[in-house]
TrEMBL record:
Subcellular location: Secreted
GO cellular component, one term: extracellular region
Gene Ontology MF: a single term: hydrolase activity, acting on carbon-nitrogen (but not peptide) bonds
Pfam families hit by this protein: Polysacc_deac_1
The protein's name in its UniProt record: Polysaccharide deacetylase
Alphabetical keyword list: Signal
Length: 436
């Protein structure tokens, strides 16, 4: 990131507590009194960064990252289909139409629609002689209009319907996004060197409408090995008391999504514990969670929360993780993605699953680690297809819906057994940032 801790000293007092008046003087300052000594020159005031000013942009902001990762990674890999020739596509259900006004790239996209009478909208394209995707991962540009959130499924027939690989991603309505498609289900023994059909679908179950746009289906080289990232939301106490010792016994680092305004509460990771974890290789990343999700905040409030949370991390010595965000409640919209791209390189959502190298770094999917069976399946896919599996946890107590310490240890043992490389947000980013 651009901002060193040395250059940032003093910013927290001015920004986080709001103790600097608009004229640049400390609130409540008194007039200087006469003295026999010559007056000491006043220090240059720390620049004020107004979190509630929607006119503030990232230009020249010391909290901003060096570049927009979404723009840099948006066209990684090679083109499989640009949807410029709609005649190549047929329909199994629903309908599609050419759209020239809503495009990701090129001159047109395809608009897919399902009516209440349709259970799904589903299009397909066949490839005479098959195409080789045995050493590649797919990504698809999608713009969901309705409903607000849904899962997009891509099926590879390799070479027929008895041997298929089902890929998928969950998405929120937030403008154009590039979905990194990861494995969800395997039928038979698919031969990915001979993919004869690719289909794209959204399932509604009927009784409602759906509309989304697709564009720019791309393939990218598969990673050399599978990886796993172990993430924790909300900096709860059990992450330090229970999860940390278990991961230490394996030599694994983790990633904590910190809600800055909760630090110091008795049921959160103690401040000294956060330092200890970071010294062991963990990342403390931004998790600016409040009572409302980012889909319910104004663009100004979104930006304010993102900047304030990052400022706290930097001021408190957690620069290494400050360039990354875990989306509160896993939700975002188009303006939130824009703001996060100014201040973070990677963002992590709630629903996703294992994927190959990222193409849209602000919406990296995660798997619910509380469901041990689902977590192990994600780890299996990561090992088999050289994917990145990001596991998500909150409490590690066994109370309510949270995972028990024994089940958590069982999952970590399984990571060890598979020999997956355990990465953090910062180490993963370091490994890919210069790859395109």
């Amino acid at each position: 990131m651009n901002l060193s801790r040395r250059s940032y000293l003093g910013l927290s007092a001015a920004v986080l507590s709001g103790c600097v008046a608009r004229g640049g003087e400390p609130a409540g300052a008194t007039e200087p009194t006469a003295t026999s000594e010559p007056p000491t020159p006043a220090p240059t005031p720390t620049p004020r960064f107004s979190y509630d000013d929607p006119s503030v942009d990232a230009a020249g902001d010391p909290l901003a990252v060096a570049f927009n990762s979404r723009e840099r990674f948006r066209d990684v890999g090679w083109l499989v289909d640009d949807f410029e020739d709609e005649r190549l596509w047929g329909t199994f259900a629903g309908r599609y139409a050419v759209e020239e006004d809503v495009v990701y790239c090129g001159s047109q996209s395809l608009r897919l629609d399902a009516t209440p009478a349709d259970e799904r909208v589903w299009i397909y394209r066949t490839f005479d002689g098959g195409i080789d995707l045995s050493d590649a991962d797919l990504s698809l540009a999608v713009n969901l209009v309705t409903p607000d959130t849904e899962g997009i499924t891509v099926r590879l027939a390799a070479p027929d319907y008895d041997n298929t690989l089902l890929l998928g991603r969950h998405v929120w309505a937030a403008g154009w996004q590039r979905l990194d498609l990861g494995p969800r289900r395997v039928t038979g023994s698919p031969d990915l060197s001979n993919v004869t059909e690719i289909s794209i679908q959204l399932y509604t179950g009927g009784g409602t409408t759906a509309r989304f746009y697709v564009d720019s289906l791309r393939a990218k080289p598969r990673a050399d090995a599978g990886k796993v990232m172990i993430t924790f939301d909300d900096n709860t106490r059990s992450q330090y008391d229970t999860a940390y010792p278990i991961l230490e016994s394996h030599g694994f680092p983790g990633v904590v999504g910190v809600i800055p305004w909760t630090v110091g509460s008795s049921h959160r990771i103690p401040r000294s514990g956060m330092d200890e974890m970071v010294d062991s290789g963990w990342d403390m990343v931004s998790h600016p969670q409040r009572s409302d999700s980012f889909r319910d905040l104004s663009p100004a409030d979104q930006r304010a929360s993102i900047r304030e949370s990052k400022a706290w991390l930097v001021e408190n010595g957690f620069e290494r993780g400050a360039d990354f965000i875990i989306w509160p409640y896993g939700r975002y919209d188009e303006s939130a993605l824009d703001a996060a791209s100014d201040y973070h390189y990677l963002g992590f959502v709630t629903v996703g699953g294992p994927t190959g190298p990222v193409s849209d770094p602000q919406i990296v999917g995660r798997t619910d680690g509380d469901d041990v069976k689902k977590a192990k399946q994600a780890l299996d896919f990561a090992a088999q297809y050289n994917q990145l599996a990001v596991l998500m946890y909150h409490d590690v107590t066994g109370k309510g819906r949270s995972i028990s310490p024994a089940a958590f240890a069982e999952t970590m043992d399984y990571v060890d057994e598979l020999g997956l490389d355990v990465v953090t947000a910062s180490s993963y980013w370091d490994s890919i940032r210069d790859s395109v």
